[in-house]
Design a protein that fits this description.
It contains four helices and no strands. It is mostly helical. The longest helix is centred in the C-terminal third of the chain and has 36 residues.
Length: 94
Amino acid sequence: MAGFFSGSPRHEAPEPLEGPVVATVVGGTIIWFVLFLVQLPFYGWFEDHGHTWWVWTCLAGAGLGLIGIWYVRRRDAAIKRAAAQETTPAPSAD
């Protein structure tokens, strides 16, 4: 076990994967909300069997997904702004 912590070789971190992040988070949020809606008619069964946390977990996933959508949209806009500033030449001081 000591070799795992002290003697492991160091490697450079791989480049982060970029993809359709906003679409992925929106899709996941929709799935969580649909699962919440599908379980609502069976709330009595979940309550009888002590599984109401399934319903509330889906609602929490949808709520956190809304926060995630807000976050990734702002992140995407910031990345685009930074890329636009890199390609725009700096104004000359004449």
